Amino acid sequence: MLEISNLTHVYGSGPGAHHALGGVDLKVAQGELVCIVGPSGCGKSTLLRSIAGLLHPTGGTVTLGGKPVERTPDDLAVVFQDYSRSLFPWMSVGDNVALPLRRKGMDRPRRREAATEALEQVGLAGAEGKYPWQLSGGMQQRVSIARALAYRPALMLMDEPFGSVDAQTREDLEDLTLRVRSHHDMTILLITHDIDESVYVGDRVVVLSKAPATVVGDLRVDLPGPRDQITTRENPEFVHLRAEVGRLVRGMRDDPGAAS
Amino acid sequence: MTGRSLFDNRLLCGAIGVAGLFCLAELAGRTGLIDPIVFPLASSVVGRAVGLAADVDFLADVASTLGAWAVGLLLTVLIAVPVGFLLGTLPWVETSLRPVLEFLRPIPSVALIPLALLLFSDRFDMKVAVIVYAAWWPVLINTMYGLKDVDPLAKETLRSFGFGPMAVLWRVSLPSTAPFIATGVRLAAAIALILAISAELLAGGSSGIGTFILEAGSSPDALEYTVAATIWAGAIGVISNSLFTLAERRLFHWHLARTEGAR
Questions:
Q1: To probe the interface with B, which of A51, A54, A64, A72 has the most B CB atoms within 10 Å?
Q2: What is its main location (chain B) (predicted)?
């Protein structure tokens, strides 16, 4: 459903130019949850912003559902890392979740209904009337996820969605992501720098090199479901995969002895 | 314990300050430190001020000043906010208008009253024009400043759901800037009152607090009337400021909750 071919992007020009993407190729099938990992500053966010139509890449193409992405696609939602900035403080939680649904031409009662349902799904039933800043960080990120879910996107992009919450909340939100995606027929692209997280959450882990980013690894994760924070993480396959991804991220390829 | 809680109460503390100053002024007059002929007794000024509250002529003057003030302030907001948005969102407009703005801003607004007198034959129009000119600066500057403060990620969030530039302006930039605009309007309200009375004082005319003060000069109790009317001008300023502050707190509690939480 998503096809990226030879995507390049350069910020600025001349000698000071920053080559963020150096020809990324990626295919994502309908219903897949693909995690993209890579070292910090490797251009993961640039990739995400290109898919979302928020920036025009300097080269290559992004095709979503057979159509090239030129502006922001209609059936796409983004969950950003910084929930406190991404949620609107002047609106209640319910209004925050309902706002994007205006784009779908839904009337007010239906928008409300959809918001209530989405908030229930993320475990925030009855929080409609609160304001985002009255909630904890983890709950705010749940609101962002609810906002994306209510929109019923074909593709949900998540940009380091659990990077600003504590470890316990992070695990809860990872499980929440796995749970909601089993309810929706949704393709998810999750960007993270956390190797464990990528293996735990993903059906596939795509590893990017440091900038200019290219795909240096594409691993299928065949872990038994339903996944569980304790048993999945002690599964030998999990341990093996995280080591594999770790090596790729550090640029050590498949030869652990070669690098120091 | 009681002493501490007494001074913790801002309203009570302020009341003590006012009462103290009143007593000092009264004492200075009574003891002859300030000759009551040179400057009237505090008690007689306050008495005169209370009397003015029931004086139909004075109330008509207050209404006249407040009328010009309200129309001026409304026009200010209607002009300054859109212009602020234009300057804040289109960099080339800002760059090309900046020299003009930088030149006009330091000109004392009161200095433009004689010019306004020449341009406007109608006194009310003249007052409103002077008010708009002086009061639009804080609204304009705050609108532009507030727009710069709009979180790019908030805009990007709405864009990611497929909303266009106008929707982003209306649903993110405007609400996000609103608390800054409100602060600008509160400052503008104070300036507008100053300018309304200044224009009346300088240009005379038939009605207004400033006109009342001018005309009081020829009465036998000129000083008492002048000071009493001035006290009312000050009181109106305080009341307007408090009302605006209250409205800001009510409307933009989300802004306060956030900025205070971030400290």
A1: A72
A2: membrane
